[in-house]
Amino acid sequence: MNQLGKDAVRDVRFGLDEGIPSDWYQGRPAVSLYFDNLSTLFPLGEAFFMRSVQHYRDRIDDEALRAEVRVFHAQEAMHSREHAAYNRMLEARGIDVEALEVGVARLLRIPHRFGPLGPRVALCVTMSLEHWTAMLGHLVLSEDAMFDGADPRMAALWRWHSAEEVEHKGVAIDVYRAIGGRYPLRAVMMVVTSVVFWARVAQQQHRMMRWAGLSRDRAAWADLARFLVVEQRVFQRLGPHWLAWFRPGFHPWDRDDRPLLARWRTRWSADLPWQRAAPVQPA
Ligand SMILES: [Fe+2]
Ligand SMILES: [Fe+2]
Fold first, then answer.
1. pLDDT digit of tens for each residue in the chain (283 aa)?
2. Which ligand is closest to the CA of 168, given by its number?
3. Residue 12 CB partners (closer than 8 Å, separation 6+)
4. Model-level pTM?
5. Distance 146 CA to ligand 1 centre (A)
6. Of 89, 178, 213, 275, which one has the greatest count of Cβ atoms within 10 A?
7. Is 25 helix (H, G, I), strand (E, B) or coil?
């Protein structure tokens, strides 16, 4: 069901540079920083996802799933590359991405404290975060107006990343099931991962707002709250899909996102003039 033909690996270069203003999202600095905040998590996070899934590649007998793992890997590698460029742009603006990454790296080492269970815990963390990226990606793709008035390169990057997260949303959990992964661990790890993830996002948002001189700016914080809670209703809308994870037979493709992806391909992927197909490296 994953939408991962070879054409799903798009070698897109957004050419982000200092020409993009810090309030690139509709002139709203706190909301711009929220997206920037997520960007700082991706290079290390996606490298972790790739390692977690790759760890089990020899235990996957199903050739179709092995092929999907290769495309998953290639897509995440492209995301990491473009978000690394994004983050270099942030550093040039005084956001200390390296300092943030020290903390992220520390968090991502925790699963390895679980000894022989470590790789399975890491895969569950990956699946949980992939569920979040797929849910957030769905939100982006279903709201055409979300990036109205935003810098067009940034809008294209976030839509592209969102679409590919939705395309490969079932891969990690398919691998988990293929290796005999069981329900209790994936349920517990979703709770733990969600709490740690959003606590980290909140903490980083505060630090980034401080670096931008906005941490005491009530209007900026109120604007961010308005964006998340009133305009996009992020938690209200994602709540039911988050809870769906806890159904024992749950699969991300229980929600059929093919129409949404088809719409992105016709409507938005033509906005990627830098696009060419990228080779898929063997996993
Ligand atoms: Fe990604
Ligand atoms: Fe992903």
1. 777 877 888 888 888 888 899 999 999 999 999 999 999 999 999 999 999 999 999 999 999 999 999 999 999 999 999 999 999 999 999 999 999 999 999 999 999 999 999 999 999 999 999 999 999 999 999 998 999 999 999 999 999 999 999 999 999 999 999 999 999 999 999 999 999 999 999 999 999 999 999 999 999 999 999 999 999 999 999 999 999 999 999 999 999 999 999 999 998 887 675 555 555 655 5
2. 2
3. 78, 82, 160, 272, 274, 275
4. 0.94
5. 19
6. 89
7. strand
